[in-house]
Each structure stands twice: as C-alpha cells, then as structure tokens.
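hiii so um. not sure if this is the right channel but i have a protein structure encoded as tokens and i wanna go backwards to a sequence. like what aa goes where. can anyone help
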C-alpha cells in the first residue's frame, strides 16, 4: 500500500519522494529528522541541488508528461 500525506508515522527506514515543494518543505524536514531518506523535487524555484536538512536532498528537476500525436 502506498500512502500519500496521511496522518500516520513513517517507519525510520522509509524513502520519500516529494514533488513540487516550492519553498515550503517543513514536512520533508520532519520526515528527514525522523530517519527517512527524502528526495524533494521542484524545477520552478531558484534553489541549487543539495541538502535541505538532515536526510533531505533537493533536486531541481520536474516531472512532465509527453503527449503523443495521433497517427494519421
């Protein structure tokens, strides 16, 4: 089961991916302090790749979809 922003404690050996964090990443810092490995992603802000806090890695990357052209 995959949880998303639920009100339950994460195990200390968890891995968290967080997308679109902007400049608000207090939850990510909390998860990192509790022992999770956290990777936060957002290409829309001017922060450089690096550490945000204990166990919290920031990546200036974004996800996007690809729309295929219809055949014919």
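sure thing!! here u go:
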């Amino acid at each position: 089961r995959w949880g998303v922003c639920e009100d339950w404690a994460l195990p200390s050996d968890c891995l968290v991916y967080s997308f679109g964090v902007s400049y608000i990443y207090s939850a990510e810092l909390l998860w990192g302090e509790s022992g999770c490995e956290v990777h936060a992603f957002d290409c829309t802000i001017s922060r450089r790749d690096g550490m945000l806090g204990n166990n919290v890695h920031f990546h200036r990357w974004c996800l996007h979809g690809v729309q295929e052209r219809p055949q014919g």
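oh and The CA atoms of residues 64 and 70 lie 19 Å apart.
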